[in-house]
Amino acid sequence: MSAPKKVVLAYSGGLDTSIILKWLQTEYGCEVITFTADLGQGEELDPAREKAELLGIKRENIHIEDVREEFVRDFVFPMFRANAVYEGQYLLGTSIARPLISKRLVELAAEHGADAVAHGATGKGNDQVRFELAAYALNPDIKVIAPWREWDLSSRTKLLDFAEKNQIPIAKDKRGEAPFSVDANLLHTSSEGKVLEDPAVDAPDYVYQRTVHPEDAPDTPEYVEIGFEKGDAVSINGEAMSPATILTKLNELGGKHGCGRLDLVEGRFVGMKSRGIYETPGGTLLLEAHRGIESITMDRGAMHLKDELMPKYAELIYNGFWFSPEREMLQAAIDASQAYVTGTVRLKLYKGQARTVGRWSDYSLYSEAHVTFEDDAGAYDQKDAAGFIQLNALRLKLLAARKRRVE
Hints:
- With 407 residues, the protein is of the alpha/beta class.
- The chain contains 13 helices and 14 strands.
- A five-stranded parallel beta sheet has the order 3-2-1-4-5, sandwiched between helices. It has a five-stranded antiparallel beta sheet with strand order 10-9-8-13-14.
- The longest helix is centred in the C-terminal third of the chain and has 23 residues, at 384-406.
- 36% of the residues are buried.
Protein backbone atom coordinates (compact mmCIF):
# COMPACT_ATOMS: atom_id res chain seq x y z
CA MET A 1 0.00 0.00 0.00
CA SER A 2 1.39 3.40 -0.95
CA ALA A 3 1.80 5.91 1.87
CA PRO A 4 -1.40 7.88 2.50
CA LYS A 5 -1.32 11.67 2.16
CA LYS A 6 -4.36 12.43 4.32
CA VAL A 7 -5.98 10.17 6.93
CA VAL A 8 -9.24 10.39 8.90
CA LEU A 9 -8.68 8.83 12.32
CA ALA A 10 -11.36 7.48 14.66
CA TYR A 11 -10.12 9.41 17.70
CA SER A 12 -11.27 9.05 21.31
CA GLY A 13 -8.79 11.47 22.83
CA GLY A 14 -7.39 8.70 25.00
CA LEU A 15 -3.78 7.66 25.22
CA ASP A 16 -3.90 4.89 22.62
CA THR A 17 -5.53 6.92 19.84
CA SER A 18 -3.31 9.91 20.69
CA ILE A 19 -0.29 7.67 20.18
CA ILE A 20 -1.83 6.47 16.91
CA LEU A 21 -2.35 10.08 15.81
CA LYS A 22 1.32 10.93 16.38
CA TRP A 23 2.44 7.62 14.87
CA LEU A 24 0.53 8.36 11.67
CA GLN A 25 2.24 11.74 11.46
CA THR A 26 5.72 10.36 12.08
CA GLU A 27 5.38 7.07 10.18
CA TYR A 28 3.68 8.39 7.05
CA GLY A 29 4.24 12.15 7.26
CA CYS A 30 0.56 12.54 6.43
CA GLU A 31 -2.08 15.08 7.38
CA VAL A 32 -4.51 13.76 10.01
CA ILE A 33 -8.19 14.60 10.44
CA THR A 34 -9.78 13.39 13.69
CA PHE A 35 -13.33 12.16 14.20
CA THR A 36 -14.77 11.72 17.67
CA ALA A 37 -18.31 10.36 17.94
CA ASP A 38 -20.57 11.15 20.87
CA LEU A 39 -22.46 7.87 21.03
CA GLY A 40 -23.65 8.46 24.56
CA GLN A 41 -20.56 6.97 26.21
CA GLY A 42 -20.98 9.36 29.12
CA GLU A 43 -17.57 11.02 28.80
CA GLU A 44 -16.66 14.68 28.35
CA LEU A 45 -15.45 15.03 24.76
CA ASP A 46 -13.99 18.55 24.84
CA PRO A 47 -10.62 17.19 26.05
CA ALA A 48 -10.42 15.26 22.77
CA ARG A 49 -10.46 18.55 20.89
CA GLU A 50 -7.85 20.08 23.19
CA LYS A 51 -5.54 17.07 22.90
CA ALA A 52 -5.88 16.96 19.11
CA GLU A 53 -4.93 20.64 18.92
CA LEU A 54 -2.01 19.97 21.26
CA LEU A 55 -0.81 17.31 18.83
CA GLY A 56 -0.84 19.76 15.96
CA ILE A 57 -4.22 19.09 14.35
CA LYS A 58 -5.82 22.12 12.72
CA ARG A 59 -9.11 23.22 14.27
CA GLU A 60 -10.95 22.70 10.96
CA ASN A 61 -9.66 19.11 10.88
CA ILE A 62 -11.11 18.21 14.28
CA HIS A 63 -14.63 16.75 14.15
CA ILE A 64 -16.59 16.01 17.32
CA GLU A 65 -20.16 15.07 16.55
CA ASP A 66 -23.21 14.18 18.61
CA VAL A 67 -24.58 11.18 16.73
CA ARG A 68 -26.76 9.76 19.52
CA GLU A 69 -30.06 10.27 17.73
CA GLU A 70 -28.76 8.80 14.48
CA PHE A 71 -27.23 5.90 16.39
CA VAL A 72 -30.48 4.91 18.08
CA ARG A 73 -32.85 5.76 15.21
CA ASP A 74 -30.92 4.23 12.30
CA PHE A 75 -28.94 1.44 13.94
CA VAL A 76 -30.22 0.41 17.40
CA PHE A 77 -33.95 0.55 16.63
CA PRO A 78 -33.73 -1.42 13.34
CA MET A 79 -31.72 -4.06 15.19
CA PHE A 80 -34.28 -4.29 17.99
CA ARG A 81 -37.10 -4.75 15.48
CA ALA A 82 -35.40 -8.10 14.87
CA ASN A 83 -35.02 -8.89 18.60
CA ALA A 84 -31.39 -9.55 17.71
CA VAL A 85 -29.41 -11.54 20.29
CA TYR A 86 -25.99 -13.08 19.57
CA GLU A 87 -25.35 -16.57 20.96
CA GLY A 88 -28.58 -16.43 22.90
CA GLN A 89 -27.62 -13.59 25.24
CA TYR A 90 -25.59 -10.67 23.85
CA LEU A 91 -27.53 -7.58 22.73
CA LEU A 92 -24.74 -6.45 20.35
CA GLY A 93 -24.01 -3.09 21.98
CA THR A 94 -20.47 -2.71 20.66
CA SER A 95 -21.17 -4.34 17.31
CA ILE A 96 -23.96 -1.97 16.30
CA ALA A 97 -21.92 1.19 16.94
CA ARG A 98 -19.09 0.33 14.54
CA PRO A 99 -20.91 0.76 11.20
CA LEU A 100 -21.98 4.29 12.16
CA ILE A 101 -18.40 5.29 13.06
CA SER A 102 -17.11 3.81 9.79
CA LYS A 103 -19.83 5.59 7.84
CA ARG A 104 -18.75 8.96 9.21
CA LEU A 105 -15.06 8.18 8.68
CA VAL A 106 -15.71 7.47 5.00
CA GLU A 107 -17.96 10.54 4.62
CA LEU A 108 -15.34 12.80 6.21
CA ALA A 109 -12.66 11.28 4.01
CA ALA A 110 -14.71 12.30 0.98
CA GLU A 111 -15.28 15.81 2.36
CA HIS A 112 -11.58 16.37 3.10
CA GLY A 113 -10.22 14.57 0.05
CA ALA A 114 -8.50 12.02 2.28
CA ASP A 115 -7.28 8.77 0.79
CA ALA A 116 -7.32 6.70 4.01
CA VAL A 117 -9.08 6.10 7.31
CA ALA A 118 -7.57 4.67 10.49
CA HIS A 119 -8.85 2.99 13.64
CA GLY A 120 -7.41 1.86 16.97
CA ALA A 121 -8.77 -1.68 17.08
CA THR A 122 -6.27 -4.44 17.81
CA GLY A 123 -5.49 -7.43 15.62
CA LYS A 124 -7.11 -9.87 18.05
CA GLY A 125 -10.63 -8.55 18.22
CA ASN A 126 -13.82 -8.20 16.22
CA ASP A 127 -13.77 -4.40 15.87
CA GLN A 128 -11.02 -4.35 13.25
CA VAL A 129 -13.24 -6.52 11.06
CA ARG A 130 -16.34 -4.39 11.67
CA PHE A 131 -14.62 -1.08 10.96
CA GLU A 132 -12.95 -2.29 7.81
CA LEU A 133 -15.80 -4.28 6.26
CA ALA A 134 -18.07 -1.26 6.69
CA ALA A 135 -15.49 1.12 5.22
CA TYR A 136 -14.89 -1.05 2.15
CA ALA A 137 -18.63 -1.55 1.63
CA LEU A 138 -19.09 2.22 1.49
CA ASN A 139 -15.94 3.04 -0.49
CA PRO A 140 -14.12 0.14 -2.16
CA ASP A 141 -11.13 2.40 -2.95
CA ILE A 142 -10.52 3.62 0.59
CA LYS A 143 -7.28 2.65 2.34
CA VAL A 144 -7.61 1.44 5.91
CA ILE A 145 -4.73 1.78 8.36
CA ALA A 146 -4.72 -0.42 11.46
CA PRO A 147 -1.63 0.63 13.46
CA TRP A 148 -1.91 -2.24 15.94
CA ARG A 149 -1.25 -4.61 13.04
CA GLU A 150 1.66 -2.57 11.70
CA TRP A 151 3.76 -0.98 14.42
CA ASP A 152 6.32 -2.49 16.77
CA LEU A 153 4.88 -0.87 19.90
CA SER A 154 4.12 -4.31 21.28
CA SER A 155 4.11 -3.55 25.01
CA ARG A 156 2.72 -0.95 27.41
CA THR A 157 6.26 0.18 28.16
CA LYS A 158 6.97 0.85 24.48
CA LEU A 159 3.71 2.77 24.13
CA LEU A 160 4.51 4.97 27.13
CA ASP A 161 8.07 5.53 25.90
CA PHE A 162 6.70 6.61 22.51
CA ALA A 163 4.24 8.96 24.23
CA GLU A 164 6.93 10.56 26.39
CA LYS A 165 9.32 10.90 23.46
CA ASN A 166 6.62 12.69 21.46
CA GLN A 167 5.34 14.81 24.37
CA ILE A 168 1.94 13.15 24.49
CA PRO A 169 0.33 13.81 27.91
CA ILE A 170 0.02 10.69 30.04
CA ALA A 171 -2.50 10.60 32.87
CA LYS A 172 -1.03 9.31 36.11
CA ASP A 173 -3.42 6.36 36.17
CA LYS A 174 -2.22 5.32 32.71
CA ARG A 175 1.31 4.56 33.91
CA GLY A 176 0.06 1.44 35.63
CA GLU A 177 -2.00 -1.36 34.15
CA ALA A 178 -5.71 -0.59 33.89
CA PRO A 179 -7.70 -3.35 35.65
CA PHE A 180 -9.90 -3.89 32.58
CA SER A 181 -10.80 -2.31 29.23
CA VAL A 182 -14.11 -0.52 28.68
CA ASP A 183 -16.12 0.34 25.59
CA ALA A 184 -19.31 2.33 26.13
CA ASN A 185 -22.14 3.90 24.19
CA LEU A 186 -25.78 4.73 24.78
CA LEU A 187 -26.81 1.10 24.37
CA HIS A 188 -24.31 -0.58 26.68
CA THR A 189 -20.97 -0.86 28.41
CA SER A 190 -18.53 -3.65 27.60
CA SER A 191 -15.70 -4.55 29.98
CA GLU A 192 -12.98 -7.03 29.05
CA GLY A 193 -9.44 -8.12 29.85
CA LYS A 194 -7.07 -8.21 32.81
CA VAL A 195 -9.10 -9.04 35.96
CA LEU A 196 -11.86 -10.46 33.76
CA GLU A 197 -9.80 -12.86 31.68
CA ASP A 198 -10.41 -15.94 33.86
CA PRO A 199 -14.01 -16.99 33.12
CA ALA A 200 -14.07 -19.10 36.30
CA VAL A 201 -13.72 -16.03 38.54
CA ASP A 202 -16.69 -13.84 39.41
CA ALA A 203 -16.36 -10.28 38.13
CA PRO A 204 -15.60 -7.70 40.86
CA ASP A 205 -18.46 -5.36 41.72
CA TYR A 206 -16.44 -2.31 40.65
CA VAL A 207 -16.61 -3.48 37.01
CA TYR A 208 -20.30 -2.57 36.81
CA GLN A 209 -20.90 1.07 35.94
CA ARG A 210 -24.52 1.49 34.84
CA THR A 211 -26.45 -0.89 37.06
CA VAL A 212 -26.81 -1.33 40.79
CA HIS A 213 -26.38 -4.85 42.11
CA PRO A 214 -29.81 -6.51 41.88
CA GLU A 215 -29.61 -7.34 45.58
CA ASP A 216 -29.22 -3.62 46.34
CA ALA A 217 -31.99 -2.51 43.98
CA PRO A 218 -35.17 -0.97 45.46
CA ASP A 219 -37.36 -3.31 47.48
CA THR A 220 -40.45 -1.87 45.79
CA PRO A 221 -41.19 -2.78 42.15
CA GLU A 222 -41.59 -0.03 39.57
CA TYR A 223 -43.90 -0.15 36.58
CA VAL A 224 -43.14 1.50 33.26
CA GLU A 225 -45.24 1.71 30.09
CA ILE A 226 -43.48 1.79 26.72
CA GLY A 227 -45.43 2.84 23.62
CA PHE A 228 -44.55 1.46 20.19
CA GLU A 229 -45.29 2.46 16.60
CA LYS A 230 -44.38 0.02 13.82
CA GLY A 231 -41.90 -1.77 16.04
CA ASP A 232 -40.07 1.27 17.43
CA ALA A 233 -40.44 2.71 20.92
CA VAL A 234 -41.96 6.19 20.80
CA SER A 235 -43.03 6.99 24.36
CA ILE A 236 -42.48 6.21 28.03
CA ASN A 237 -45.42 6.43 30.43
CA GLY A 238 -47.40 8.29 27.76
CA GLU A 239 -44.75 10.94 27.08
CA ALA A 240 -43.49 11.08 23.50
CA MET A 241 -39.69 11.14 23.26
CA SER A 242 -36.97 10.99 20.63
CA PRO A 243 -35.15 7.67 20.12
CA ALA A 244 -32.00 8.66 22.04
CA THR A 245 -34.05 10.22 24.85
CA ILE A 246 -36.08 7.02 25.18
CA LEU A 247 -32.97 4.85 25.46
CA THR A 248 -31.43 7.27 27.96
CA LYS A 249 -34.54 7.09 30.15
CA LEU A 250 -34.75 3.30 29.89
CA ASN A 251 -31.07 3.10 30.90
CA GLU A 252 -31.88 5.12 33.99
CA LEU A 253 -34.87 2.95 34.92
CA GLY A 254 -33.14 -0.34 34.18
CA GLY A 255 -29.92 0.65 35.92
CA LYS A 256 -31.82 1.69 39.04
CA HIS A 257 -33.34 -1.79 39.30
CA GLY A 258 -30.22 -3.76 38.37
CA CYS A 259 -31.51 -4.92 34.98
CA GLY A 260 -29.34 -5.89 32.03
CA ARG A 261 -26.19 -7.44 33.51
CA LEU A 262 -24.48 -10.17 31.51
CA ASP A 263 -21.33 -12.21 32.11
CA LEU A 264 -20.63 -13.87 28.76
CA VAL A 265 -17.99 -16.03 27.11
CA GLU A 266 -18.56 -15.45 23.40
CA GLY A 267 -17.14 -16.80 20.17
CA ARG A 268 -15.32 -14.00 18.37
CA PHE A 269 -15.49 -13.85 14.58
CA VAL A 270 -11.68 -14.11 14.41
CA GLY A 271 -11.86 -17.55 16.05
CA MET A 272 -11.04 -17.23 19.74
CA LYS A 273 -13.36 -17.07 22.71
CA SER A 274 -13.42 -14.05 25.01
CA ARG A 275 -15.08 -13.19 28.30
CA GLY A 276 -16.96 -9.90 28.60
CA ILE A 277 -19.08 -8.17 31.20
CA TYR A 278 -21.93 -6.31 29.55
CA GLU A 279 -24.48 -3.88 30.95
CA THR A 280 -27.46 -3.12 28.73
CA PRO A 281 -30.17 -1.85 31.08
CA GLY A 282 -32.25 0.13 28.58
CA GLY A 283 -31.82 -2.45 25.85
CA THR A 284 -32.98 -5.22 28.16
CA LEU A 285 -36.19 -3.32 28.88
CA LEU A 286 -36.65 -2.50 25.22
CA LEU A 287 -36.23 -6.12 24.10
CA GLU A 288 -38.69 -7.42 26.69
CA ALA A 289 -41.26 -4.76 25.78
CA HIS A 290 -40.84 -5.26 22.04
CA ARG A 291 -41.45 -8.98 22.34
CA GLY A 292 -44.44 -8.16 24.51
CA ILE A 293 -46.11 -5.97 21.89
CA GLU A 294 -45.25 -8.43 19.11
CA SER A 295 -46.97 -11.20 21.05
CA ILE A 296 -50.41 -9.65 20.50
CA THR A 297 -49.91 -7.92 17.13
CA MET A 298 -47.93 -10.40 15.01
CA ASP A 299 -49.28 -13.51 13.33
CA ARG A 300 -47.79 -16.78 14.58
CA GLY A 301 -46.34 -17.75 11.20
CA ALA A 302 -44.65 -14.40 10.66
CA MET A 303 -43.33 -14.31 14.23
CA HIS A 304 -41.91 -17.82 14.10
CA LEU A 305 -40.22 -17.19 10.75
CA LYS A 306 -38.75 -13.96 12.11
CA ASP A 307 -37.41 -15.84 15.12
CA GLU A 308 -35.75 -18.32 12.76
CA LEU A 309 -34.10 -15.51 10.79
CA MET A 310 -32.91 -13.67 13.90
CA PRO A 311 -29.75 -15.71 14.69
CA LYS A 312 -28.45 -15.13 11.16
CA TYR A 313 -29.27 -11.43 11.38
CA ALA A 314 -27.54 -11.13 14.77
CA GLU A 315 -24.47 -12.96 13.48
CA LEU A 316 -24.21 -10.60 10.50
CA ILE A 317 -24.18 -7.61 12.82
CA TYR A 318 -21.70 -9.22 15.20
CA ASN A 319 -19.36 -10.12 12.34
CA GLY A 320 -19.45 -6.64 10.78
CA PHE A 321 -21.76 -7.11 7.81
CA TRP A 322 -24.21 -4.28 8.54
CA PHE A 323 -23.78 -2.86 5.03
CA SER A 324 -24.07 -6.24 3.30
CA PRO A 325 -26.91 -7.11 0.89
CA GLU A 326 -27.94 -10.08 3.04
CA ARG A 327 -28.42 -7.90 6.13
CA GLU A 328 -30.42 -5.40 4.08
CA MET A 329 -32.57 -8.22 2.66
CA LEU A 330 -33.29 -9.51 6.15
CA GLN A 331 -33.98 -5.97 7.35
CA ALA A 332 -36.58 -5.49 4.63
CA ALA A 333 -38.39 -8.64 5.75
CA ILE A 334 -38.14 -7.68 9.41
CA ASP A 335 -39.41 -4.15 8.78
CA ALA A 336 -42.36 -5.51 6.79
CA SER A 337 -43.27 -7.67 9.77
CA GLN A 338 -43.55 -4.59 11.99
CA ALA A 339 -46.39 -2.87 10.10
CA TYR A 340 -48.89 -3.51 12.91
CA VAL A 341 -46.50 -3.72 15.87
CA THR A 342 -48.08 -0.70 17.52
CA GLY A 343 -49.40 -0.39 21.05
CA THR A 344 -48.27 -0.24 24.66
CA VAL A 345 -46.50 -2.65 27.01
CA ARG A 346 -46.34 -2.41 30.79
CA LEU A 347 -43.16 -3.75 32.42
CA LYS A 348 -42.53 -4.58 36.05
CA LEU A 349 -38.98 -3.81 37.17
CA TYR A 350 -37.75 -5.55 40.29
CA LYS A 351 -34.38 -6.83 41.54
CA GLY A 352 -32.69 -7.28 38.18
CA GLN A 353 -35.79 -8.48 36.32
CA ALA A 354 -37.92 -6.74 33.70
CA ARG A 355 -41.15 -8.64 33.06
CA THR A 356 -44.08 -7.89 30.79
CA VAL A 357 -47.22 -7.70 32.91
CA GLY A 358 -49.57 -6.01 30.45
CA ARG A 359 -49.91 -5.23 26.76
CA TRP A 360 -52.62 -3.70 24.56
CA SER A 361 -53.02 -2.51 20.97
CA ASP A 362 -55.63 -1.34 18.49
CA TYR A 363 -54.11 -3.96 16.17
CA SER A 364 -54.27 -6.84 18.62
CA LEU A 365 -54.87 -10.35 17.25
CA TYR A 366 -55.81 -11.60 20.68
CA SER A 367 -59.48 -12.58 20.80
CA GLU A 368 -60.88 -13.19 24.24
CA ALA A 369 -64.04 -14.52 22.63
CA HIS A 370 -62.06 -17.39 21.11
CA VAL A 371 -59.96 -18.37 24.12
CA THR A 372 -62.45 -17.88 26.94
CA PHE A 373 -63.23 -20.77 29.29
CA GLU A 374 -66.77 -19.43 29.49
CA ASP A 375 -69.47 -19.57 26.79
CA ASP A 376 -67.87 -18.29 23.57
CA ALA A 377 -71.25 -17.58 21.94
CA GLY A 378 -70.35 -19.60 18.85
CA ALA A 379 -67.03 -17.88 18.14
CA TYR A 380 -65.29 -21.26 17.94
CA ASP A 381 -66.75 -24.67 17.14
CA GLN A 382 -64.74 -27.22 19.11
CA LYS A 383 -65.92 -30.03 16.78
CA ASP A 384 -63.70 -28.51 14.05
CA ALA A 385 -60.63 -29.65 15.98
CA ALA A 386 -61.39 -33.34 15.33
CA GLY A 387 -60.82 -33.14 11.58
CA PHE A 388 -57.79 -30.88 12.10
CA ILE A 389 -56.19 -33.48 14.37
CA GLN A 390 -57.02 -36.40 12.05
CA LEU A 391 -55.43 -34.75 9.03
CA ASN A 392 -52.28 -33.88 10.99
CA ALA A 393 -52.17 -37.37 12.47
CA LEU A 394 -52.45 -39.18 9.12
CA ARG A 395 -48.73 -39.34 8.33
CA LEU A 396 -47.91 -40.26 11.93
CA LYS A 397 -50.39 -43.16 11.71
CA LEU A 398 -48.83 -44.38 8.46
CA LEU A 399 -45.35 -44.23 9.99
CA ALA A 400 -46.50 -46.13 13.06
CA ALA A 401 -48.23 -48.78 10.90
CA ARG A 402 -45.06 -49.33 8.86
CA LYS A 403 -42.93 -49.62 11.95
CA ARG A 404 -45.29 -52.23 13.43
CA ARG A 405 -45.34 -54.14 10.15
CA VAL A 406 -41.57 -54.42 9.62
CA GLU A 407 -40.38 -54.94 13.18
